[in-house]
Amino acid sequence: MIYLDYQATTPLSSEVFEAMAPWLRDYFANPHSAHKPGRAAAAAVEAARARVAALMPEDGRVVFTSGATEALNIAIAGAAKLMRSRDPKRIRIITVETEHAAVRDTVLAMAEQGFDSVLLPVNAEGLVDESALAAELDERTALLAVMLVNNEIGVIQSVEALAKRAHAAGALFLCDAVQGYGRKDLPATADMIAVSGHKIHGPKGVGALWLRDGLDLPPLIHGGGQEGGLRSGTLSPALCVGMGEAARLMAQRREEDTAHVEALWSRARDLFSGWRLNGSAEQRYHGNLNLRRKGLDSARLMSECRDVAFSLGSACASGSGRPSHVLRAISLDEKQARSSIRLGFGRYTSMEELEAAAKIINHAADNQLS
Hints:
Distance between the termini: 26 Å
Largest sheet: 7 strands, mixed
Number of domains: 2
Shape: globular
């Protein structure tokens, strides 16, 4: 099986596995216990926290969560309630039509709590519509949430500039950096940043929320008061250690990983020259290749290419039967959206695998369209 679905999840690195193993096998103490084994577990968690924080802006703290979805829910609900408590007229939460469901659906759900939920449109390249943002961002805004790298089409938003615009309006700025953490520069002026372990060759079931110093959000869940009272629940030292090691490797291997992805991107553009790129070609992460061919049935194509793992869009929305909301947002009609596929590659993808996968996919597509 050739794996080309890095946006859904990345392969666990061997170094991460080895770092986690002792905390799964030998050291089982609760990191919140006061005895010696508990303190050892707590020390391992704090070392991991420091490694995750090393790739974040300097003036903030890292809170471990069960994943980016929880981190984003804590950030959105907490920031909205905090800002409304400071100023009752700040009830507007703005995000982008092409955001991951963890942001998009959470923002929409906040309408049930009396907030004004706004989804900004994007242009044909997938970039935020500037005129729409100018019309919506005002003194009523509590939060602007924009992702760094889109999980479906790889488009990179100008998050640093967007954060500054949010602050000029007196609002907070949240960045979903799941696809960009360790690969692209994070917005130094963001107030909150959410990341995930399994998108950086770490384990599933752990993520983190970075909060700027001085920003104290109300908790989403209540319990034992762990993680500074923001995220109650017993932490898994193994998962935290795994994410910390994954973050360390992202920093250490960033230059090497970037060069490898660029080489794969360049070759892939040649191998799929008969396909149309979805989203911006310039403002984009090159480990994501979202393509379409006129008249293609991409769901059928996937079933015909059983030796290649790729996707039709977000793994979180697979099986819904609906065309991608991201592709529809960039003005593709339903037929175009249903003729699209997403290929994702990275650190452990070989050039030979990419070439073999392209041969299989192109052959099946040619047969379908002949």
